[in-house]
């Protein structure tokens, strides 16, 4: 006969069976039985105490992205659970494997507006891959097994388990299932239809201006080697989405950067002028494509994705390929002929030379500007031998433009939801998932303040995060839109910032302030040499804009470019 265990014990026993090593959370009344079981039975799972539940969700997200394993977060009922929702929505939009465990009022109080009751099951229906409300302890082990299976299989995503308090206290015979049986959910990792793959190869073989557009799905599928093999065999340039950065080393001769609203101009030109486009694991959302009706007007599009819902969602697709990226590319490679596209690559190189001229202009100034800092960081980390976690805003775009990523799973950012406050807590999860790596946080002053309380977690856990704040005194990207589209009416975007160096000092974290170009390299070296966490407050020029920029609803061909000196004089 199986041993009887309480629901609280079943939670920890099941997490151990799933190989969980760390949980991010904040206890409360509705999870006290779970936390008491952790203390009483001394389960060998590291619990990381956060200062806000949103941070816990982002930490689990960062851990999941960095390791490929399921990240786990925990919160109490009511406000504890609802505080998770921004992080769960972030994970959902970016396909991150997360399991969130929340406490709930006792079953006898469900629907009675009891203290700290919130229908988190209903709240999270549209921002999780699946969710559960557990009202019977006998179902708990099976639910946990299913939740981890759903979170990590197929297209990954967050799953929430809401457990009533009396369920945590009740006992039942504990048997952890060996497998799951979900009739409505049977994800299989297979290659796409062979006939469709053959037609895709035929199109690529005939193309004169082919291009591969690699998204986050390449990284999730661990299909980087296959992507590079295909590109090299057929001499096809590779562009990426923002979340696809790292699918091919950005120093590779066939890498042509990332496209979209603030992507590289030469990348956007190449996407627009291509005649055949192979899209692998990208959502083709509006920030990447610009106006859907104007994207890649000359191209026949082949779209490979594990999720059939993405195929044709926003654009007309000529050849849909539903399947695993790694397996499908393996089947495609033998059918694609060796080729050279010399004139096409020369044209892209010419567009890139124009971009390089404008990029140099952005850095050749006496002001302390973010592009200069990012490029210095890249050089001083041995050409990008580190992991970068960015927040959302102008600094996010500058990092993607000027830091050349060569490391796999080397950039983590909030793409789909665009969540300010993501960077610091997500980096905590990344650092715990990859403890032997150097992890840099790049954040704006606005987003950093949203979750900077997690400096407490950094200090308590002794994590050696390196934190760079681009402090321009504004909600920078919003100010830029006001500058370009609202006649410089800077309504409610100027910030009243604290002294970030003193804030770091209050947590026992060493920090320094940089106000000019001469201090950049010294500060970065100082941070890298320190064994623990270190914060740098870069006081950057406040009115520097991100270029290029595509206005909402416009074509990617109609980019607002960085002015050259001659163009400035003409104005």
Structural account:
There is one protein chain. The chain folds into 3 domains: 4-173, Rossmann fold (3-Layer(aba) Sandwich), CATH 3.40.50.970; 194-351, Rossmann fold (3-Layer(aba) Sandwich), CATH 3.40.50; 360-546, Thiamin diphosphate (ThDP)-binding fold, Pyr/PP domains (Rossmann fold, 3-Layer(aba) Sandwich). The longest helix has 22 residues, at 342-363. Strand 12 (276-280), helix 13 and strand 13 form a beta-alpha-beta unit. It is built from 24 helices and 20 strands. It is globular, with a radius of gyration of 24 Å. Helix content is 39%, strand content 16%. The strands form 4 sheets. It has a 6-stranded parallel β-sheet with strand order 3-2-4-5-7-6, with helices on both faces. Strands 11-10-9-12-13-14 form a 6-stranded parallel β-sheet, with helices on both faces. The chain has a 6-stranded parallel β-sheet with strand order 16-15-17-18-20-19, sandwiched between helices. With 571 residues, the chain is of the alpha/beta class.
